Amino acid sequence: MSDVVLAVHDGEDELAMWMCRFPVGERGGWGEHYHRQHQITWVSQGLSTAIIDGRSWTVSPNRAVWIPGGMAHDVVNRGDAVLHCFYIWPEQCPSAWDEPVDLTVSALARELMLSLGAPGTERAVWEATATVLFAELERASRSRPPLPMPLDERAAELARALVDRPADQATLGQWARRLATSASTLRRAFVVDTGLTFSEWRTRARLEASLPLLAAQMSVERVAAHVGFASRSGFTEAFQRQFGHSAATYRRRVAGFSANGRVER
Predict the structure, then answer these.
(1) Burial letters for 155-166: b for 16+ Cβ neighbours within 10 Å, e otherwise?
(2) Hey, which end of the chain has fewer CB within 10 Å, N or C?
(3) In sequence order, what are the beta bridge partners of 57?
(4) Within 10 A of 127 (CB to CB), how many other CB atoms are there?
(5) How confident is the model over 58-81, as pLDDT tens digits?
(6) Superfamily of domain 5-142
């Protein structure tokens, strides 16, 4: 970790937990860094990509990621994303996961983090709110494996491009020519570094990209085309294999989330 920057946050000595908000137009990509505090990364609109210890996580309004203190990471925003980073001193946190954790973010969890991140809260209220938040996070944690990123520099460049543009239809041979390497070199790098063939990895990347679109209530057919599948049936079959339920089921499950991040009653 000698090449990774230690980030020191303003005001960190005065607050047990606090929130930083990055508005539309802040692209992120500050470079790989780490800090002592645990971090919950989420967005109130748009999408972000968190790169944590060489793995990629998609962050959307209903899906956050827990980043353990001391773990190298970076966050890159896409389009109109509004990014929120909630920092927690390890001593104040009973939910100390040692690895990144995918979290389903409820309206309650969002409001609790906003409340805890604001200055001036009375101690008794703060303690009660923190207890409820950590209970909610324990309930919301999931074991979804992240998308592994290749370590080879050229394969990593290809992987980042496909995360940004999942519908890209270029063949591995075409990418090899763009990157001044061979298709066999790229193919081998994906298998060795990620445990997946290039085709398997690209399918996973497309499925990851589909989740926030389904959460935004885009139709299954449009989502399939948007992330690069040739047909709705091909998309739905791949989705079922990867996640154990249909894309339509996932879309219905998150239908309670409105555009402003609150649950519709």
Answers:
(1) bbebbbebbeeb
(2) C
(3) 50
(4) 12
(5) 888 878 899 999 999 999 888 788
(6) Regulatory protein AraC (2.60.120.280)
CATH topology of domain 149-253: Arc Repressor Mutant, subunit A (1.10.10)
Do the domains 5-142 and 149-253 sit in the same CATH topology, yes or no?
Answer: no
Quote the CA–CA distance of 16 and 130 in Å, as a whole number: 10
Instruction: Provide, rounded to the nearest whole percent, the portion of the chain with pLDDT above 90.
Output: 35
DSSP 60: B
In tens, the pLDDT along 188-232 reads: 999 999 899 999 999 999 998 898 788 778 999 999 999 999 999
157 Ramachandran zone, left/alpha/beta (phi>0; psi -120 to 50): alpha
**Quick one: which of 169, 172, 208 has its CA closest to 55?**
208
The two structure tokens encoding residue 93: 């946190």
Residue with tokens 């209903």: 62
pLDDT at 260 over 60: no
In sequence order, what are the beta bridge partners of 76?
A: 28, 49
Instruction: Name the amino acid, one letter, at 97.
Output: W
CA–CA dist 74, 178 (Å, integer):
26
Q: Write down the H helix ranges in the chain.
A: 107-117, 123-140, 153-164, 172-178, 183-194, 198-215, 220-226, 232-243, 247-253
Closest-CA residue to 57 (of 3, 102, 12): 102
List, in order, residues 6 or more apart from 70 with CB less than 8 Å away: 34, 35, 36
Domain residue limits, the chain: 5-142, 149-253
- Mean pLDDT lowest among 41-55, 83-97, 189-203, 236-250: 83-97
